[in-house]
């Protein structure tokens, strides 16, 4: 079996500065230091934009999806849905709080939610609240959604008891 060796990278040589003459040398005019060539930076390549590319900034979630997420949270807090169903839409911290909260909304029947009221604090943060109808008494659910990469995640939630 024959072994193949790859040639190592060869060192590159750069000009060294002109050394000072020795002390006992006759006084002569030192030669000027060579001027290094300017470093060329490559020109940026232009990438054609196509419709198939994913935009770097995800679009804002529409009201219907926000309302569906609020309904899912309300159902989890009413004990009508397991918390694992919303795990991909929350941060680890918020998921832990959701599991610890358990069933804190008493509902006589199926939970319904009203249209969400949305407030944008900055480009990557949405805060919303919605009214949760759960039989004889209604409650308020407030949620904070933050853009994490290409997805919106719930980082905080709060409800009235």
Number of helices: 2
| Poorly predicted tracts of residues | none
Residue share in β-strands = 15-25%
Tell me the span between the first and last alpha carbons: 77 Å
Overall outline:
rod-shaped
User: What is the helical fraction, as a range of percent?
Assistant: 10-25%
Note down, in words, how this protein is organized.
The longest helix is centred in the middle third of the chain and has 15 residues, at 63-77. The protein has helices at residues 63-77, 92-101, and strands spanning 112-113, 117-122, 125-133, 138-148, 151-159. It is built from two helices and five strands, in the order H-H-E-E-E-E-E. Strands 1, 2, 3, 4 and 5 form a five-stranded antiparallel sheet that branches. The protein has 161 residues and is α+β, with helices and mostly antiparallel strands. It is 16% helix and 23% strand. The protein starts with 62 loop residues before the first helix and ends with a strand.
């Amino acid at each position: 079996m024959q072994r193949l060796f790859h040639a190592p990278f060869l060192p590159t040589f750069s000009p060294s500065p002109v050394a000072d003459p020795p002390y006992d040398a006759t006084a002569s005019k030192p030669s000027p230091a060579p001027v290094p060539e300017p470093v060329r930076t490559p020109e940026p390549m232009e990438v054609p934009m196509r419709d198939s590319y994913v935009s770097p900034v995800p679009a804002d979630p529409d009201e219907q999806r926000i309302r569906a997420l609020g309904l899912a949270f309300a159902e989890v807090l009413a004990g009508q849905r397991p918390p694992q169903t919303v795990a991909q839409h929350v941060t680890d911290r918020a998921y832990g709080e959701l599991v610890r909260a358990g069933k804190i909304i008493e509902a006589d029947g199926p939970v319904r939610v009203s249209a969400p009221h949305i407030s944008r604090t900055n480009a990557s943060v949405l805060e919303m609240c919605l009214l949760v109808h759960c039989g004889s008494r209604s409650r308020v659910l407030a949620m904070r959604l933050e853009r994490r990469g290409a997805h919106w995640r719930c980082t905080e939630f709060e409800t009235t008891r």
